[in-house]
Fold this protein.
Amino acid sequence: YMTLSRICCIGAGYVGGPTCTIIADKCPDVTVTVTDLSQDRINQWNSDDLPIYEPGLDEIVRRRRNKNLFFSTDVKKAVIEAELIFICVNTPTKNYGLGKGRAADLKYVEAAARMIAEVANQSKIVVEKSTVPVKAAESISNILKANQRRGVQYQVLSNPEFLAEGTAVNDLLNPDRVLIGGEQTKEGREAVESLCWIYSHWVPRENIITMNTWSSELSKLAANAFLAQRISSINAMSAICEMTGADVTEVAHAVGTDTRIGNKFLKASVGFGGSCFQKDVLNMVYLCECLNLPEVAAYWQQVININEYQKRRFANRIIESLFNTVTNKKLAVFGFSFKKDTGDTRESAAIYVCKYLTDEGANLRIYDPKVTDKKIFSELTNPLMCEDPERVKELVTTYPDPYEAANGTHALVICTEWDQFTTLDYSRIYQKMLKPAFIFDGRLILDHEALMKIGFQVVTIGKKLQRSNVHRSFSTSSQS
Ligand code: NAD
Ligand code: UDX
């Protein structure tokens, strides 16, 4: 192994921060500097109030910070000093120009590469950790080599990250695998070995997979596309269940016990969210179109279409159940983050459900244990999807307490599967609601029988509950 003593990371976000914190913790002899252009973010990483919420992360940051883990806005200094540089900048979906709405925007990755080339006065290993389209490492390499100083050599590796938010610490500590792609040359293999050396501090060698750069880049897009496709598959089943009397949880159980299929990631929901799935699947769709593979592009596009259908369908069921109008009705929304145990709201299904309901003139009372008011309003008034921010501000109120949020409402809408929603006192909530009181469980987390006993009208994804159909104007009585 070639050992390393100094590494740095460009981008102190959901990936750069936690990944480098774990590296610093597991490699006490390596100095790790995490950098970002945003002074705000760096200040937060250096404070007691970290910029992201991840269970277990605070403690490890506190243990390593200012020992061998540093957070800084001096990106150039960190790059000059480091032997290995992780690029962990954001690669959002492009919202302009060629490939708008689908292609990954690589401007931050390119800016990082140009900056490295500008300041590096020694050879560097540059590790692409951001999720990128296939061949991005080659572009990075071209930029670096075209601007290379005398005596400076670059090796570019692909090392995609598989952590999921809310479980980042555990995912980083016990990864199913670490994936490293590199050039199939002597220098390329040496660079791969150096990065292996870092991970081998805590990851068993057999769990570190090495391969060529393009395979590694594509594997990341493929993994996310497969995961997203499972969710769209079970959500497509949920629509059939609601029409027939089959129960999607039972179907998922029956299907998932086939070991060839497996039981994970088969939870029907109001739709997947998060910063990755939609972006990466669209990125793949765009890639296929560029490669002149329209059938493959259409196949993956359908995963996104079903997800949009699911979010819309859930909102429509709410409206339909509430006697076909939610105008001026009060609805409590429980959960705004895209999944539990994170304060991240990027592409959260809750945003879309709230948008559809406010478009109908509903008054929303939103409660989330980790998402700030500021973030909720900035998502709901985002100019990309909101035409009238003033109206949204009139219709939406946030609450620090779920009981208060539910007070005097016509309905509760569960958008995120936070554990605490399963232990609330629903009898108490019911007392203070308008009747008939409805619950729309978009995450299948509540005890529906118990709720119906209290008196609630319960509507959930992928299951037809008898009493919830009482108010439907039509009836498909395939259920007793
Ligand atoms: P993020 O937006 O939280 O963080 C990116 C950070 O990079 C921002 O703080 C931004 O200010 C900074 N940045 C941008 N350009 C910079 C520059 N030139 N110099 C210094 N800093 C710069 O994004 P994220 O969620 O951490 O995602 C980063 C990448 O990792 C993306 O490509 C994403 O697809 C991928 N990824 C994300 C996850 C996830 O769960 N969030 C998981 C796996 C992979
Ligand atoms: C995902 C990938 O899991 C991770 O490997 C990759 O590195 C980044 O993208 P993340 O988006 O953080 O991670 O969370 P994930 O647990 O995958 O959930 C994504 C969305 O799918 C959430 O909205 C979640 O609620 C939803 N989901 C997940 C379902 O609706 N049903 C499921 O069975 C699983």
Notes: Residues 213-244 form the longest helix (32 residues). The chain has two domains: 6-203, 228-480. The pocket of nicotinamide-adenine-dinucleotide (ligand 1) is lined by residues 10-16, 35-38, 41, 75, 88-91, 108, 111-112, 130-131, 161, 163, 165, 275-276 (CB under 6 Å).
